[in-house]
Specification:
This protein is mainly β and 131 residues long. 0% of the residues lie in helices and 47% in strands. It has strands at 18-25, 36-37, 40-51, 60-61, 65-72, 75-79, 84-87, 92-94, 101-105, 111-120, 127-128. Strand 6 and strand 7 (84-87) form a beta hairpin.
């Protein structure tokens, strides 16, 4: 599978997943360019991701630093090594980088999480795991 951005991922619609890009820019609110990351222009992406109750997301990884806050629902994040973390509304998570994991919306309502990614401009923020 090729690298994809979270809001362009294949199969998202089939799972009922809703991904809204709240912001994506290489500039701060006043128009200044963000500092470079290792001589590459930085870009910040803010997504609101809604996962229907009972849906398990496909295994994936993030090649960039990201963190999120669960706004609604209950969410469990499971890594391939068997570790997991469960989130309640208002709790934050700093995601693993370059480690395969998946999210499970535990219900009874959809899980809604806002996630912030910091990456070199134009690079993928989510990569599907190999089967």
């Amino acid at each position: 599978m090729e690298n994809v951005r979270a809001d362009e991922g294949p199969g998202a619609a089939a799972l009922g997943l809703k991904v809204e890009t709240l912001s994506r820019s290489d500039r701060s609110w006043n128009g200044d360019l963000l500092p470079k990351l290792n001589d590459v222009q930085a870009e910040v992406t803010v997504l609101r991701i809604t996962v229907p109750a009972g849906v398990t997301l496909p295994r994936h990884s993030h090649p960039v630093i990201n963190a999120g806050v669960l706004l609604q629902g209950r969410l469990r994040v499971e890594s391939d090594d068997g570790s997991s973390q469960s989130l309640q509304p208002g709790q934050a998570i700093i995601e693993m980088v370059n480690k395969v994991h998946r999210g499970v919306s535990l219900g009874p309502e959809p899980a809604v999480v806002v996630v912030v990614y910091v990456a070199p401009k134009g690079s993928p923020i989510t990569v599907p795991a190999s089967p």
